[in-house]
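Quick question, first post here. What does this chain look like in 3D?
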Amino acid sequence: MHLLAYGVGPVMLVQLACYPVLLLTFGRPGLRLPWFLADSSAIAILVGVAPWIGFMAAQTRRGRPWWSGVPALLCQVVGAGMSLNTMLALVRSTRAGGVFVRTPKHRIVEAGQEWRDQDYVRVGDPRALVEGVAAVAAFSIPPIALAMHQFLIAIYAGMFGLGFLLVAALSLVDFVEVMALRRLGSRALARMRVAAPAVGLMGVAAILLLLAAQLPEPFEDGYGHWLIAANLASTGQLHDPLFGMEDTWLPGYHVLAAAVLQLFGLWQLGLLKALSALLGLATAACVYLLAPNVRQARFAVVLLVLNPVFLFTSGSAVVEPLMTALVSGAALAAVKGRMKLAALLAAMACVTSTKAWIWVTAAAALALIAAIRSRAGLRRRATALGWAVPALGALVFLQLGFAPASHSIARGTVEVVSATARGSVPEGALGRIGELFTTFGLAALPLFALGAVGAGIALRRPAALHTRFVHVPALAYLAVIFGLVAIGVYSGSHRYLYPALPALALLSAAALDRHAQGAVRLLAVGATALLAVAFLPVFASFADHNVGLVAAGRAAAGSPDVLLTDSPVVAYYSGKRPVDITGSQALPLDRARALEWMRSRAVSTVVVEDISYYRSTAVFPDLARGSASPPFAWLGRQSTYQVSGGKTVHAYRLGNARTLESIYPGLDADISPAPPRGKTAPLAKGVVLRAGATQVAGEGLGFGVPIVHYTDGWVYSHATLDVDRSTPTTAIWQRTFQLDQIGGDAAHGYRFVAIPSRGAIQVTYTVDSTGISVNVKVISLAAGYSEVGILNEQSATFSDFAAENQATLRDAAFANWVPVTGGWARLRSASLGVEWSVPAVSGASLHGGRELVPPDFDWSGLDYVFPASFAGTTYHINVQEAR
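> Answer (accepted):
Ran it through. Tokens below.
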């Protein structure tokens, strides 16, 4: 290294270029370096770590602890990243008159001199783009190296990639700083440095909020908002197909969410959750700007973002994050004297949620009182109150025209009564208030405790703008919410506390800044962080109560036509379009008329919850109890839909013909005619698998399909006769295959030709939660056959073959004829997350095979071949989620 000096850069690039060659040659199993080369590489490793040891030793010689030299680890990372730059500088130096310049030399010779405003600084160095490409190339090596168990190569390639990325990122930072100084003046750098801590704080807050948004959606309301937005995006109609909640929920959030879904896809619930997280970040930014000084701003943001109620609600697809961001923005604009902007944001909040009406009314009332008590002129008083006119006008118009507040109270009262009857909500005002205080009030305990102290300080100055536009409206909001919970209008969700949290965070920060010492401040922040960690399993468990509904939705995904359900969770996981989903609220109360209504709308699947005020429970009480009677039949195993602590859920199929049966949620067995595809398009198929709404048989013939070998070729089936022998609890299908097609080989031009039937073979399929039982029975067979095959085929997506005591074969390694010598064989699809297996059957040989040559061939199967004198067989196909 010392001899090479700057030449070490090109040598490092050669080292990186050798990694792909090493992986291609010595990376495969069975190929290893000679022992003397492998052992000597340990010396190279010692040389590599020598700089780290040297830095640490130097620190100890200076009287510092050894670990203060640990940052030296970054030196090699940066050195690896600079290797490409050094190589380019070396190439330039070889030209006529060239000079070796590895890094810019800025000639800083006086105190206070800035390199960024020097004339010779290069802006937008194209080498940064080359380094970015090199980073991508280097980062592509570690996954391959890890798969080949070449860990040292993975580590060093990752170090190169990190180095290239770091150097390219620093070049980007330099570019921004230089452009700021040259175009905006020297003050821009000072502003950037002042803003850097705030930007860093908001960056950490954004990461926390987006991480919280990765939790499963905890509220049915979140799925309900998605359904309205998806319906608006897909049909242009603002309508809730289940409950008609458009008369209660205001349209502001749904218009915004529909725009997101229109751009990125109807089922992008994750993007709606991320949108809520960004709205929570906007609220945190407003809190930062509302604080009177930087220290209070930082405390307020930390206390707010770490609060469990704020953190986890901001990651849900509900209306509160948008409403709170608008209200906080309006308060900030009013405090800063931007009254027109405040009026706009307040009006937008009033068309987003009726909860915003409380804030607007309280702030307007305070403004009115202040105007009455003011000695200013009439015009000035009117100006002070004018900001509230658009918002008050919007809420009066909405209430008089559509009565959303009245509908909200009516619906909320019914929900509370039903939840109380189920035991989900305590009886009595004190019980409901106590539960709200002792559960979700505990999650916000630091804010409530410190906010009370801060409120005492703020209320001493009632004329202050923060008091009028932030603190008092928030306290009034809390008082109204607790009152509504007490009288039984609201059930007491923690989401109701969310809009008051920004004001409580500001009050808490004021209390800490004025009265607390450093240790107390850290204790408050630490307690808030610990509460967030402690409540993580609590908030995560909310989604667990929806597991049964999720399973029912996935089970309904494969059923054709319309789904009837009162659960937006089921609607989302069914994957059906909003126009193919309906609720039970429109059902006639008479059972016969209700059935006629359902048939007229092509309803094929019904998911019922035992909720007293749902119309389906009143019309079909037997279904709500879990009792199926014609024309209803169970859809899948009902125990899958029952979850401890969750709602009682049952899924049914409506109709006489039963062509689909759930094996497990999201995967069905389908006996309906499969669409003709590829080479086997003229042939009859057996039972196929359906993942969601899509059959996954490809060109494969399905499960349990007989073929017979005669001297003139293999004989297949085209005509079939089906009989549905299903019971209310079990799907049983009987298909009789007529052997009336021959071909697929060279003798017949690789086509299938119709022939007189050479017999019939009856196959009975019985579907349960473990898979499909197949019973094959010969009805008649013309003499002269030598073999009988029973095919079990799906699409070539099942590309992972395994068998007892045999090597696993994947993709191209899985050929079209692989004998199975053990007691079982299995096929797996990683993309579908499904696998199925069959046992060896006495008297038959078992073979696996796969072909994928679009558009003619797309199959993968496990096929039995029986010798002559075949009378029938029975076997079970195990179907499960891929392990």
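The chain has 29 helices and 24 strands.
The two ends are 49 Å apart (CA to CA).
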